[in-house]
Amino acid sequence: FFVLGSNVPRMSSGIQTKPKTAVQKSKTSSPLPCSPEPPIKPQPKPSDKLNPKTIDPFGAHSRPPSAFAAIYAKGGIPCRLVHGSVKHRLQWECLPEAVPFDPLLVTLAEGLRETKHPYTFVSKEGFKELLMVEGAAEKAIPLLPRLVPVLKAALAHSDDEVFGRGLDALVQLSAVVGPSLNDHLKHLLTNLSRRLMDKKFREKITVALQKLEQYGGKVS
After folding, report:
1. Which end of the chain is more exposed for a tag (fewer CB within 10 A), N or C?
2. Which range of residues forms the domain containing residue 185?
3. CATH classification of the domain holding 129
4. Count of CA atoms in the C-beta half-sphere (13 A) of 209
5. How many Cβ atoms from other residues are within 10 Å of residue 53's Cβ?
6. 99-149, pLDDT tens digit by residue?
7. What is the pTM of this model?
8. Which stretches of sequence are listed as region Disordered (predicted)?
9. How many CA atoms lie within 13 A of 150 on its CB side?
């Protein structure tokens, strides 16, 4: 018993020292798993491809930006989107009246085929506001041969929102240039008649045709 009793403090001291050394080892070894991890990139998950944050829109392996997106990124569009609490608006770098229509109006019309934000809003609102300036008719009429094919492409687009923007732009242009658009309508009516069979756009296209007839006069 004395032998066992004499060993008790030794055993207790050994028990105290072992957890202590284990704690020390845990303190010194705990950062080790973290330190080699940063330089080693984890294997990509299939879900990462669906995460927009992991996709660089201008990366080497991504689709090249459209012409409108490239011009916008380089500052070729003299207006920017301003996010509001209720609705968005455009902020022009200079007065729209001072902006040359050629080639900006054509560029904005090409942007109607965009499907990503903010290009969708900038192109639609920019086209609308540019046609609202004083003397817009005199500036837009010479551009009709270039504008009509661009609007035709928007009206032929498979995306419903693109078609809607193209239709709105066509009515806005007709309200400004009036009968000057009549000679070009034959290039656009085919695309409108195709969508007229769609119940979603039947009423909107009918109203648009009525406005085109109104702005174009008896000849239309």
Report:
1. N
2. 65-216
3. 1.25.10
4. 15
5. 6
6. 999 999 999 999 999 999 999 999 999 999 999 999 999 999 999 999 999
7. 0.70
8. 1-61
9. 24
